[in-house]
Amino acid sequence: MPKGPDIKQMFAGIARRYDLANHLLSLGIDYYWRRRLVKEVKASNPTSVVDLATGSGDVAFALKKELGQSVNIKGIDFCEPMLAKAIGKKSQKKVFQDIEFILGDILHLPLEDNSVDTLTIAFGFRNLEDRAKGLKEMRRVLSKPNGVLLILEFTQTHLWLRPLYTIYLKYILPILAYIITGKSKAYHYLAGSIESFPTKKLISEQIAEAGFKNIKSQALSFSIVAIHRAET
User: CB of 46 within 8 A of CB of 118?
Assistant: First the structure.
């Protein structure tokens, strides 16, 4: 697992074309995954939501569109070029003006204890240098009781799909990524990090060890990704 500074440098290098790469490499399914995440958030009726590892802000923008102006939305990321991308996109639409984007590290969140109703993290949990520490920070800032954590992340696919999916991740995706972004290192890392990421069951156990309860996981798209939901 690369260290935090290495992860930051990788994402800084692909920030300019990050959105385009996401949409093309996922064949557009990333829009559906975000909609499912936002639907889960809406069901918890939050007044404040923080999107961790917000990247270029797509989850934060989707949350604002669905939840409206009455819900406070913040996005946090530790990679300045990615955050700059989010801020640039925010400036293009009036409806997004009250979203606050903050530079910060999940392992040391710049948030008060018990200050947030709901936390989301989409495809950033896998990149944490210390998942146990990150989960403890998430629990620290969530309101108690009834705080909600929602993690959208890659997971282990169904066995029948795994051989084809592995070929795509290892050989096809890095080539396509290089064509789109001019860089392939981050996408070689992506393939390796997905293959080595724990199963849904093990992730649920790690979430429980951090003190969360009522933990559920829901697989999507042949278990390519999963949404993990937990409460404080």
Answer: yes
